[in-house]
Design goal:
The complex is a heterodimer of chains A (253) and B (482).
Chain A: E1 2-11, E2 14-24, E3 29-33, H1 40-48, E4 53-62, E5 65-66, H2 72-78, E6 80-83, E7 90-94, H3 95-109, H4 117-130, H5 135-139, E8 141-142, H6 148-162, E9 166-170, H7 178-191, E10 197-202, E11 215-220, E12 223-228, H8 230-239, H9 241-252
Parallel strand pairs in A: 3-10, 3-11, 6-9, 9-10
Antiparallel strand pairs in A: 1-2, 1-4, 4-5, 7-8, 11-12
Helix pairs in contact in A: 2-3, 3-6, 6-7
Chain B: H1 2-13, E1 27-29, H2 36-45, H3 50-64, E2 88-90, H4 104-112, H5 117-124, E3 127-132, E4 135-139, H6 142-147, E5 151-154, H7 155-161, H8 163-169, H9 180-188, E6 193-197, E7 207-212, E8 223-228, E9 233-241, E10 248-251, E11 254-259, E12 264-272, E13 283-294, E14 300-307, E15 312-315, E16 318-321, E17 327-336, E18 341-350, E19 356-365, E20 370-379, E21 387-396, E22 402-411, E23 417-426, H10 429-437, H11 442-458, H12 463-476
Parallel strand pairs in B: 3-7, 6-8, 7-9, 8-11, 9-12, 10-13, 11-13, 12-14, 13-15, 13-16, 14-17, 15-18, 16-18, 17-19, 18-20, 19-21, 20-22, 21-23
Antiparallel strand pairs in B: 1-2, 3-4, 5-6
Helix pairs in contact in B: 2-3, 3-9, 7-8, 10-11, 11-12
The chains are: A alpha/beta (253), B alpha/beta (482).
């Protein structure tokens, strides 16, 4: 589904990704962990097509297409979704209106008829249950005055509505209390299928208790330095990132 | 990134005016320039009674002694008032009896604008008084309106048919001497609409006028008068478009509204006169005086405007709150792009007791445009317990445009409560990227964000106008953001 080869990217003059290799197959959940500043969020942003970052090398194949050649909106319409670490507010635009626009833009791209009001409402009601989100919240301006938990649930709700092939969750657990975390994770688990895949970017192992990954990768200084199964996450939790740093220093000596 | 941003801005702001086409109809024109003879010419063309000519001449003489205002925050080369054609009427052999008799070219013009008259007539139930250049060419629904006693006709017709009403109310809210442009209008106004709602009548349909400037170098000077008698209600819609012209065209309209006791008038405008091209060449000068008076107790006047056009706009729809417990409202969205300049706002003049006013102004600036809100809230000595709430929000697209707010407050009664809130924000690249990531392209995203910003005002528009206004906002800013 997604094949990243030797991906390098920088922001202004600063190299951040220094050669990322990663392959994700349908049905898989991958977790990317790493200390602050290791490039986790940059990777998520580069994949989504944020223009602040300049890709300086490497390639990304997404479902047989060159992802890096596509505009951010086309990536989205091809089935890539990013749950933002900091979802933005759009005053005066209700979540309902926003997501309806998004859903129909995607359908148009795929050559499908737009959903009419009744169909849309029906789909929306189903997906609302997944993340235990309230109708009244969706009638309010997008993310305006939402609590941290509400914003993150709204992200997962939008994900459910857009049914992406690949969803990237960028530190979705940050700022969530344990209940909100469980709700968010439940939503993700229910959306999981053999046809889609998830890339979960997180700083803490905590989230991975709820969303159990097939693979865990450790990102450090712009490279994936360790890959393993969920046990790797537990090891990290126990020993902290310092042990990776120490090991790496040993190797380079 | 900044460059990227500017690029996108360039693109959206660079889209061309979509309503620029010229209808090829022979026009019956006055020679260029302004003099007593021209005033007489116009009056004679319209076969006006003596008192009307006198009114015009008096206004003209007054105008000669006045000076063009320089206080607005706009800049444009001096207008040569002798270089303007003050009267231009499409030539028609006989006055049309029905829509079918209207010049097919004219009808095409309306169709391009998306307001095919028969469609309007058949489907929407909106009575349309279409003004092309200076003469009202079609008036629909007149019969149905007359059943309930509502008079809705062109100003020329009203002068002939209802002289007593015109004599009583014309210039009663905006006197010819009010300002430079109102004096000019009073002297040379060519046509416009007159609307009279009798006591206790709720006008059964929205009344609508479509203005359009067509011939080259013609100033358009409409005159609109709405009188709502005791306990009546009317919702009036005004829409404007002008084709592309290289030279600036002058538009100086006057609108007067009189609301008697417990009467309510809702006046909505969607204005998209030609704004000039990307280099700031051409476009309409829109110098308009709009004012209503809440003459009776418990009356209400509400202005809603969506202003996307004109190269220079100077316009302050105002309400004089004379009756006790009367209410004045002003809801405005003003969009400026490229080199457009807008200085617009309102005046709420509280004279009666317990009067209330509400001002919601949303300015959107893009390109190299300048957008100013100018508003006055005044509370007279006897206007006890008056209340005003003003909110002025500005949204900037890019960093070459400007937003300005000039709120004036004069309060002479210490029981009054006057509130003013103002904000300025920019469309952020974060917002755009967020939309992009959901599969929404930048242009659609901007339209979405803009409409969100302007929602409070858009909600005030009647349904059929709201849809058009939303489209207009998107068109006006097409190409314009990051």
């Amino acid at each position: 589904m997604l094949k990243i080869e030797n991906l390098q990217a920088r922001i202004e003059e600063k190299e951040i990704l220094k050669g990322i290799n990663l392959e994700i197959k349908p049905g898989e959940i991958h977790a990317i962990m790493g200390p602050n500043g290791s490039g986790k969020s940059t990777l998520a942003s580069v994949l989504a097509g944020r223009e602040d970052y300049e890709v300086t090398g490497g390639s990304v194949d997404f479902l047989g297409k060159d992802l890096l050649e596509m505009s951010p909106e086309d990536r989205a319409k091809e089935g890539l979704f990013l749950a933002f670490q900091y979802p933005v507010e759009i005053p005066g635009v209700s979540t309902t209106n926003f997501i309806k626009t998004a859903v129909n833009e995607k359908r148009k791209y795929l050559g499908q008829e737009p959903l009419d009001a009744a169909q849309f409402l029906k789909t929306m009601k189903e997906k609302m249950k997944l993340v235990e989100i309230d109708q009244s919240l969706l009638s309010r301006s997008l993310n305006e005055g939402f609590s941290g938990g509400e914003k993150k649930r709204n992200e997962i709700f939008q994900m459910a509505m857009l049914e992406p092939k690949l969803a990237i969750l960028d530190e979705t657990d940050s700022g969530l209390d344990i209940d909100a975390l469980r709700i968010v994770a439940n939503g993700v688990n229910q959306l999981r299928s053999k046809d889609n895949a998830f890339l979960v970017v997180t700083h803490y192992q905590r989230l991975l208790d709820y969303i159990v990954p097939d693979f865990v990768h450790v990102l450090y200084k712009g490279r994936i330095v360790r890959s393993g199964t969920k046990e790797l996450a537990l090891e990290l939790e126990e020993k902290g990132y310092d042990f990776i740093k120490a090991e790496l220093e040993k190797e380079t000596v | 990134m900044q460059e990227e941003n500017d690029d996108i801005l360039e693109q959206i702001t660079s889209s061309e005016y979509k309503y620029g086409f010229v209808t090829d109809i022979e026009a019956d024109e006055a020679p260029k320039g302004l003099s007593e003879d021209i005033v007489r010419f116009i009056s004679a063309k319209k076969n006006e009674p003596e008192w009307m000519l006198e009114y015009r001449l008096k206004a003209y003489r007054q105008w000669l002694t006045m000076e063009e205002p320089t206080w607005p925050n706009v800049q444009y080369p001096a207008i040569n008032f002798q270089d303007v054609i003050y009267y231009s009427a499409p030539k028609q052999k006989v006055a049309p009896n029905s829509l079918d008799e209207i010049d097919p070219e004219l009808r095409k013009t309306f169709e391009k604008l998306g307001i095919s008259l028969d469609e309007q007539k058949r489907i929407s139930g909106v009575a349309v008084d279409a003004v092309i250049d200076s003469v009202s060419v079609a008036t629909t629904f007149k019969e149905e309106l007359s059943k309930v006693g509502v008079i809705f006709c062109s100003m020329s017709e009203a002068i002939q048919e209802h002289p007593e009403l015109i004599k009583k109310y014309l210039g009663s809210v905006v006197p010819a001497t009010d300002n430079f442009f109102s004096a000019l209008n009073a002297a040379v106004f060519s046509d416009g609409s007159f609307c009279y709602i009798p006591k206790g009548v709720r006008c059964p349909m929205e009344l609508s006028t479509y203005f359009r400037i067509n011939a080259a170098n013609t100033g358009q000077f409409e005159r609109t008068l709405i009188v709502a008698e005791e306990g009546s209600y009317v919702s009036y819609l005004e829409g404007c478009t002008a084709p592309m012209r290289d030279e600036n065209q002058l538009h100086a309209a006057v609108v007067e509204i009189v609301a008697m006791e417990k009467a309510e008038v809702k006046y909505s405008t969607v204005q998209n006169w030609y704004p000039g091209d990307k280099e700031g060449k051409g476009g309409i000068y829109n110098f308009v005086t709009k004012r209503g008076i809440c003459a009776g107790d418990h009356s209400k006047i509400s202005w809603t405007q969506v202003e996307t056009g004109s190269s220079v706009t100077w316009k302050y729809p105002s309400v004089i709150l004379k009756g006790d417990h009367s209410i004045g409202e002003f809801y405005s969205v003003a969009v400026t792009n490229n080199f457009q300049q807008a200085d617009t706002g309102t005046k709420m003049v509280h004279i009666g007791k317990n009067t209330r006013s509400r001002i919601v102004s949303k300015g959107i600036s893009a390109g190299k445009s300048q957008n100013s809100y100018r508003g006055l809230v005044s509370v007279a000595k006897n206007a006890s317990n008056s209340r005003n709430f003003s909110q002025c929000d500005s949204l900037l697209l890019g960093d070459k445009c400007g937003a300005h707010t000039f709120p004036y407050i004069e309060v002479k009664n210490n029981t009054a409560i006057v509130e003013h809130e103002a904000t300025t924000s920019k469309i952020g690249e974060d917002q755009i990227f967020y939309c992009n990531q959901r599969g929404i392209d930048t242009e659609t995203a901007v339209a979405l964000i803009i409409n969100g910003f302007a929602k409070e005002v858009m909600n005030q528009l009647p349904m059929e106008f709201a849809v058009e206004a939303q489209k207009l906002l998107a068109i006006s800013l097409e190409g314009s953001v990051g």
